[in-house]
Design goal:
Layout (H helix, E strand, L loop, with lengths): L2 H27 L7 H26 L4 H20 L4 H24 L4 H21 L7
Helix pairs in contact: 1-2, 1-5, 2-3, 2-4, 2-5, 3-4
Length: about 150
């Protein structure tokens, strides 16, 4: 891997953390206690799963061949993100968000390796991550919060 590619991957990873923190702060300000169970499921599961998947893909591109280490790192980051977003709704939601993100984080490096570490696959995953979280952040305004 070229040195410039390595910095681009760290930039993507930092951008993912920044977007996750912006989404969380926006939802925490609104006291995300929606009456809609489907909205709660979307908020507590979608960002952590996408963050764990993208982190696993990025780690796979940065450190090819280190499956166990990248799986542990992506799973831990996803689990932390799941606990963070699930804590907006309670302990049971936090556990559901953490477990789903842990599963995605553990499987992400294997999926990245199966895709052959294709840059097109990484770009696609990042676009899905940005579009879904942008939609979740700005569509939340249409839901009623207590």
């Amino acid at each position: 891997m070229l040195e410039g590619e390595f910095y681009v991957l760290w930039f993507l990873f930092a951008g993912n953390i920044w977007i996750i923190s912006l989404l969380y702060s926006g939802l925490a300000e609104k006291k995300a206690n929606s009456h809609s169970v489907s909205m709660q499921m979307n908020v507590m599961v979608t960002p952590p799963i996408l963050f764990a998947l993208c982190s696993g893909f990025i780690f796979t591109y940065m450190h090819p061949g280190f499956f166990i280490e990248t799986s542990i790192a992506a799973g831990t980051l996803g689990m932390g993100c799941g606990l963070l977003f699930g804590s907006l709704f309670g302990i049971h939601a936090a556990m559901a968000g953490a477990s789903s993100a842990l599963t995605a984080g553990m499987l992400a490096p294997m999926l990245g390796e199966l895709a052959g570490r294709s840059p097109l696959f990484l770009v696609f995953a990042q676009l899905v991550f940005f579009i879904w979280l942008f939609f979740l952040r700005y569509n939340v305004r249409s839901f009623k919060f207590v």
